[in-house]
Specification:
pyridoxal phosphate, Aspartate Aminotransferase, domain 1, Aspartate Aminotransferase, domain 2, 2 domains, EC 2.3.1.50, seven-stranded mixed beta sheet, alpha/beta, serine C-palmitoyltransferase activity, globular, 15 strands
Length: about 525
């Protein structure tokens, strides 16, 4: 395997010329790369140490037809309403160009805006609902109503109490307000205050940052780690420091926007492979080594594979053993985003690396966030010490972004120590196991009731397919009437025929709560 520290120093020796010759001579053909698990969970090869089961059931054809028909009807009525607005038959609530701007390129009149004002606006009440309590297994919601079909809202002053929270990423239940649990956080808040007011490279590195970075490295089993104040920026502001012009990024088609943005900002060439499809990835790797860069045919400076641990919209888990096998075979690098998987899977909550029984050394760049399982904010990058030292100097977040709040760092430290058993209890391990039990129970219940759900049986992200656009708003409103808060997602965030509700299971959910949701 190539030296992982070369990810950061720009002097990567891929041995691409050697690989190129081997491929042309036919020596490097498809050998030793298992194709992974089939959808029925049958094991292929020896890469997997446990059964790997994922569900992506296709809906009947009539569902797809009715879904397209629903969008078609909505579009026709949208154009009709636009016509009525243009002739003054209906009030225009949206921004419009002034008469003096008519000769300029229009700012607002495009299809995206058409979709927003005519389709999204009809179901806008299902998003951005303000809550007024801790986002634990239940929360309190500020009631709001609209008098103009969701163009504006007003608050009634009433609070909807004890709504079952199936939308927050509170996987381990650390989003809590228990005084005893938050005692150390309170102490650090009184000691350091609320903000650092400086970047890591200036006056913003505190002893709490040193402590948390050592703890994260120990938790993950790597040499070093660096923390950042924002999870999204951990990807978007650090990928450009690792790769640039002359490098190749191979990105899963369902990667999060933060990964996509970071890849685009880097200036590297980006190629997309089909989701969790090892044949697609291997074809791109082979072509990259044989043909090199476009026009010049020079070898790529670096080839880096970007994947996620758990894909937050599909509920699927990365096929890490196969990807690591391909990465080693073709001397590429691997960047693993464990935003949703760290804390949520693995016997002790150490993410997909532990879930598959692999070594952290198999992954060159380990990334994760503290915004989900740890009930805090921020993110981390971890790996070899050379890599982290390079990021301390070249990371855009380290140079320009304000450091993590000390009280937030203490919340992460207390949650991570709980997971590691360093608090003298087994509470952390119990939370991980409870999350696994809740996840499997809730998924099994939905399957038994005949719903089509996506993803891996061990993923706490549970997408329930709704398909038709009319069901998006109806489902969320109906659930809220039953005192259940859910996230609904539709086009363009999902394929046009795959609108869905996304449930996020927590260790803090009781069996009664899950039963209430499944029977609502």
């Amino acid at each position: 395997m190539a030296n992982p520290s070369a990810v950061c120093n720009g002097h990567l020796h891929h041995h691409h010329q050697k690989q190129n010759n081997l491929l042309k001579s036919g020596i490097c053909k498809k050998n030793g790369i298992t194709k992974g698990m089939k959808k029925n969970g049958v094991s292929n090869g020896t890469l997997y140490k446990k059964t790997f089961i994922e569900h992506f059931e296709q809906a009947p054809m009539y569902v797809a037809v009715l879904t397209f028909l629903g969008f078609g009807v909505g579009t026709v009525f949208g154009y009709l309403r636009d016509f009525m607005r243009a002739w003054g038959l209906e009030k225009r609530n949206i921004a419009a160009e002034r008469e003096q701007q008519k000769d300029f390129v229009p700012l607002y009149q495009d299809f995206e805006n058409f979709y927003t004002r005519n389709l999204y606006m009809r179901i806008r009440d299902n998003w951005n609902r303000p809550i007024c309590s801790v986002p634990g297994p239940q929360f309190d919601l500020m009631e709001r109503v609209t008098d103009d079909y969701n163009w504006t809202f007003r608050f009634t002053g009433r609070t909807i109490k004890n709504v079952i929270n199936m939308g927050s990423y509170n996987y381990l239940g650390f989003a809590e307000t228990d005084v005893n649990a938050l005692k150390t956080v309170t102490i650090e808040l009184q000691k350091y205050g609320t903000g650092v007011c400086s970047t890591r490279q200036e006056m913003g590195t505190l002893d709490k940052h040193v402590e948390i970075e050592k703890l994260v490295a120990k938790f993950l089993g790597v040499e070093d780690a660096m923390v950042f104040g924002m999870g999204f920026a951990t990807n978007s502001m650090n990928i450009p420091a690792l790769v640039g012009k002359g490098c190749l990024i191979l990105s899963d088609e369902l990667n999060h926007t933060s990964l996509v943005l970071g890849a685009r900002l880097s200036g590297a060439t980006i190629r997309i492979f089909k989701h969790n499809n090892m044949q697609s990835l291997e074809n791109l790797l082979r072509d990259a080594i044989i043909y090199g860069q476009p026009r010049s045919r020079r070898a790529w400076r670096k080839i880096i594979i970007l994947v996620e641990g758990i894909y937050s919209m599909e509920g699927s888990i990365v096929r890490l053993p196969e990807i690591v096998s391909l990465k080693k075979k073709y001397k590429a690098y691997l960047y693993l985003d464990e935003a949703h998987s760290i804390g949520a899977v693995g016997a002790t909550g150490r993410g997909v690396v532990e879930y598959f029984g692999m070594s952290p050394d198999d992954v060159d760049v380990l990334m994760g966030t503290f915004t989900k399982s740890f009930g805090a904010a921020g993110g981390y990058l971890a790996g070899k010490k050379d890599l982290v030292d390079f990021l301390r100097t070249h990371s855009h977040s380290a140079v320009y972004a304000t450091s993590m709040c000390p009280a937030v760092a203490e919340q992460i430290i207390r949650a991570m120590k709980c997971l590691m058993g360093l608090d003298g209890t087994t509470q952390g391990l119990q939370r991980v196991r409870q999350l696994g039990r809740n996840t499997r129970y809730f998924r099994r219940r939905l399957h038994e009731m005949g719903f089509i759900i996506y993803g891996n049986d061990d993923s706490p992200v549970v997408p329930l397919l709704l398909y038709m656009p009319g069901k998006i708003g109806a489902f969320a409103r109906r659930m809220l009437e039953k005192n259940i808060g859910v996230v609904v997602v539709g086009f363009p965030a999902t394929p046009i025929t795959e609108s869905r509700a996304r449930f996020c299971v927590s260790a803090a959910h009781t069996r009664e709560m899950l039963d209430t949701v499944s029977t609502a």
